[in-house]
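sanity check both lines:
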Amino acid sequence: MTTKEDGMAQQRMTTAYAAQVARTAYLWGWPLMNIHNRRVFMEQLPGPGLLVGIVPAGPPNHVGMLHDYIRPEERIVACPNQDVAYGFGPLDAAGGPAVVQVPDFGDRFWVYQCVNQRTDSFVELGKMYGTTPGHYLLAPESWDGEVPDGIAGVFRYDTRCGTVIPRVFLDDTAQDREAILPIVNQISVYPLADYDGTMKIIDWSNAPSFGDSDAASGQDATSGQDAASGQEETQWVDPETFFDSFGEILDEVPPLPGEEAMYDWFRGLMAAAAEDPAIAAACREAALDAEVTAKELFEFRHYGLPVSDNWTTQGNGARFGTDYLMRLAVGKSNIFVNTPEETTYFYQDLDMNGDRLDGSKTYSLHFAADQLPPVRGFWSLTLYNRHHFFHPNDLDRYSLGTKNKNLTYGDDGSLTITVGGDAPTTEAAHSNWIPAPPEEFSVYLRAYWPDQSILEGTWTPPAVRPV
């Protein structure tokens, strides 16, 4: 067939060729569509608060904020951690600039993640940057308005959509839960029109809850899975409907240098699909086929940079650029990672022998006294089930690390963490144990504000040893 766009005849396109282009478009565009659909869903919210009383969220250019750890029922984002009080909200350039408040955190570790629609970071806001308290502006690149007095800095993004995720470290103690409240109550994001130079206070311990499981399901933007039920992450990208709004993605995300020809390629495909039902059908089938490939990248062992003892990592989180493989893999398995200097991540699906981790077995990780994760922020080892969420357990324990004040160290200062299998019988070993489901699981080590030895790869996690 032939198509026409902008008055110029296009070359003929077979359905087989269209399917090949569509498959590439799906793998390239999956993370961008993910952010787009989160924004579309959250447009329905009446204000900042909690989805079903659990998940922080807000309408565009606002955030909801927790004052404690995220609960294991959460299904909005895979691979959450229980080291920080989280915030979450979408950005929309169509609403103009947004103001983000930074309180005085004192000595407490904190970092705000702000990513554009490509899931690339566009800010430096955190303890590692020496950010001073105050008000900062997140502005679209196209905005040419006047920056008001009192704004401490301006960060710009070039896509329509984005995401803001504050993270504030929290010790696993009642005392720190009390101490963090007046700090997180000063964390807020709101449109520039609402800025008056004052530090707005929100009592996040009384944040409104939006909807029951059905009302918070995101059915307008997703396949109907919700914020706090089911086993898998909410399906923010549906291959059946992907190409219905793919044209919007091309309009919302400008091409990076060198991507212009690819955009022409994709727009030609969309023009052909608009004219020919057979081409449109081929695109839908190609998306379903490409989703099979994308799902393989959900497993940590299928991507990343290999390090010792079957661990993998990545070195370009939140600045993927044109590394489409890593962008997609991280988006599928653990979207919203920080830049490596903010957080380095180590992933593990396998034991030291290359066998899949299984909760019916017991494993240990031994950190020598001089080999604890070298960080200036904090570190943690988290255990996830096969869907990359917490395994509910009677201890309500999903990770161990800096936040824990009752870990048992060896006489030489070493630390041995046990995962999976039956509960240890001694109190000392029990405090260092993370329960696992009786099936496949993964472990995940975070190093916030990592030492240069982590960034250079001279420090790596210890082997996961079968006991």
In short: The chain is about 20% helix and 25% strand.
